[in-house]
C-alpha cells in the first residue's frame, strides 16, 4: 500500500477526528500552502497526480504534518474545493452577476463557475472525483463545500437574511443539478451548451419559491439545511 491508500499508518482514523481548535496564523499559512500545492498538482495531472508525499514536498511540510491536517487524499481534495469556492465567492462579491430576475443571476453565477472549470479541467475532474468518493468521514469537509455553495447561490438571489423553507429546497435542487451536470460535462456526456440549458431550467425554481414558511432557526438553518453541493473553481 502507498501512503495514499493507508493514511491510518500515519494519522488517526478520520472517523475518530475530534473538533479541532482554531488555527493559528502560522497554521493557516501552512494550510494555504498545502491547498495551493494540491491545486497545482491537480492542474497538471488530475486526480492521480495528487499524491500525499508530493503534496508534502511541494508545500514544504512533513508528511506526518500533512496527514494531521488531511487524513486522506479525498479529504485534501474536498478541502481544495472549499478553497476554490472561497476564491470564487470573493470574485463574485467584487463583480456580482447581473440579471433581471433572481433565476437569471443564479444561472449566470453558476455558468461563470463553469467557465473557471473549463480553464482547469484536470483540477475540476480531481475535485469532482473526490466529492464522489467522499464517505461519512469526509462529512465536515463536504458540509463546508455545500455551505459555501449555498451562500453563493443565496447571494445571487439577493442575500435573503431568512430564506424560506421553499427557497432552501430550491437551492438544494439547484446544487444537485449543478453537481450532476458537472459530472456529465467532465465525462463528455454533456456539452457546455446542454449544461447551460439545464442550469437555466433548474434556476427557475428560485422565481417560483418566493413564498413559503419562514425558517424559524434563522441564519443558522440557512447553513445547515442543505445537501452535498457541487464543486467549482475560483
The helix tally amounts to 10
Question: What proportion of the residues is helical, as a percent range?
Answer: 55-70%
Kindly, what is the distance between the CA atoms of the first and last residues, rounded to a whole number of angstroms?
A: 33 Å
How big a fraction of the residues is strand? under 5%
Cα gyration radius (Å):
18 Å
The poorly predicted ranges are: 1-18, 211-234
Tally of DSSP β-strands = 0
Give the SSE order as H and E letters.
HHHHHHHHHH
Mean pLDDT: 81
Q: How would a crystallographer describe the biggest sheet?
A: none
What is the molecular shape? Answer: globular
Q: From the helix content, strand content and strand pairing, which structural class follows?
A: mainly alpha
Structure overview:
The chain is mainly alpha-helical and 234 residues long. It contains ten helices and no strands. Helix 4 (73-94) crosses helix 6 and helix 8 (165-186) runs antiparallel to helix 9. Mean pLDDT is 81; it is low at 1-18 and 211-234.
Quickly list its features.
single chain; 10 helices; mainly alpha; disordered C terminus; 65% helix; 0% strand
Helices, strands, pairings?
Blueprint: H1 25-45, H2 52-59, H3 63-69, H4 73-94, H5 102-119, H6 121-133, H7 139-157, H8 165-186, H9 192-207, H10 219-224
What's a quick, concise take on this entry?
The protein has ten helices and no strands.
Amino acid at each position: 500500500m502507498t501512503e495514499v491508500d493507508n493514511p491510518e499508518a500515519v494519522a488517526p482514523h478520520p472517523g475518530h477526528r475530534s473538533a479541532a481548535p482554531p488555527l493559528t496564523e502560522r497554521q493557516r499559512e501552512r494550510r494555504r500552502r498545502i491547498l495551493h500545492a494540491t491545486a497545482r498538482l491537480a492542474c497538471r495531472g488530475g486526480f492521480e497526480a495528487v499524491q500525499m508525499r508530493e503534496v508534502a514536498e511541494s508545500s514544504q511540510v512533513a508528511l506526518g504534518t500533512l496527514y494531521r491536517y488531511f487524513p486522506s487524499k479525498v479529504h485534501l481534495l474536498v478541502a481544495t474545493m472549499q478553497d476554490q469556492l472561497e476564491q470564487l465567492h470573493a470574485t463574485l462579491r467584487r463583480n456580482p452577476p447581473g440579471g433581471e430576475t433572481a433565476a437569471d443571476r443564479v444561472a449566470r453565477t453558476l455558468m461563470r463557475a463553469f467557465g473557471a472549470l473549463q480553464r482547469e479541467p484536470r483540477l475540476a475532474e480531481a475535485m469532482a472525483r473526490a466529492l464522489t468518493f467522499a464517505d461519512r468521514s469526509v462529512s465536515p469537509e463536504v458540509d463546508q463545500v455545500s455551505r459555501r455553495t449555498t451562500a453563493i447561490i443565496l447571494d445571487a438571489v439577493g442575500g435573503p437574511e431568512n430564506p424560506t423553507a421553499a427557497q432552501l429546497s430550491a437551492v438544494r435542487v439547484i446544487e444537485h443539478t449543478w453537481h450532476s451536470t458537472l459530472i456529465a460535462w467532465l465525462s463528455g456526456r454533456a456539452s457546455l451548451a446542454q449544461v447551460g440549458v439545464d442550469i437555466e431550467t433548474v434556476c427557475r425554481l428560485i422565481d417560483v419559491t418566493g413564498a413559503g414558511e419562514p425558517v424559524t432557526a434563522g441564519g443558522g438553518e440557512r447553513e445547515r439545511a442543505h445537501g452535498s453541493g457541487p464543486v467549482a473553481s475560483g
